[in-house]
Amino acid sequence: MTREHPEWIAAFKALPGNVSKSDLTRIDMDGNAESRPGAVLILLSDGEIAEGSNWEAILFAAHHKLENLVAIVDYNNLQSLTSVEETLNIDPLEAKFIAFGWDVFQLDGHNLDALVSTLKVAKAEKNGKPKVIIAKTTKGKGVSFMENKVLWHYKTPDENQFIKYILYCII
Fold first, then answer.
1. Using CB atoms within 10 A of its CB, is residue 131 exposed (0-12), middle (13-18) or buried (19+)?
2. Quick one: which of 13, 42, 131, 156 has the most CB atoms within 10 Å?
3. Alpha carbons 164 and 144: distance in angstroms, whole number
């Protein structure tokens, strides 16, 4: 993705690490949205979004009008050992973010063109609201033995599975 779309990547600041314990909770703690140029991009999973510290930070970002904050939620509905719905249902996620004062975009997370264009729109929108992109995805999409299987949330492929995957990508 970065090879094909370098013009917008430079506009985002990457903050690696566990979001719930660092990134989202430390964004502009002074409440000054203008203190960061460009946009701050956060990647969240649908499993970790259930953590309370994330919702505290989501409220904080809206309260302080951090319009330069763009979060992407990878919504594949699988976490740990089962579905998100069975672990702790987070739906209706769009309504929750709207109620907490965020602009919400939804898209197919496997459509990179849609993701890039939505990121550009979110970055350009200056309305005093943080933005969230809910990216509906399928874990292991396109790899028959991995697709939508919770096992691949934590499993590493063995050599034969890895080769099968590589051949799938090449062919």
1. buried
2. 131
3. 10
pLDDT digits (tens, 9 = 90+) for 131-170: 999 999 999 898 888 899 998 888 888 999 888 888 877 7
By the 10 Å C-beta count (0-12 exposed, 13-18 middle, 19+ buried), 81 is classed as exposed
- Burial of residue 69 (number of CB atoms within 10 Å: 0-12, 13-18, 19+): buried
Query: CA-CA distances (angstroms) from residue 133 to 7, 32, 74, 149, 168?
Result: 19, 22, 9, 24, 29
The H or E element containing residue 97 is helix 93-99
What whole-number distance in Å separates Cα of residue 10 and Cα of residue 52? 31
pLDDT band at 98 (very low <50, low <70, confident <90, very high): very high
Q: Is the pLDDT confidence value at 78 over 60?
A: yes
Q: From residue 131, give the alpha-carbon distance in Å to each of 8, 78, 97, 168.
A: 16, 23, 9, 35
Q: For residue 29, what pLDDT is reported?
A: 43
Q: Given the structure tokens 């000054």, which residue do they identify?
A: 32
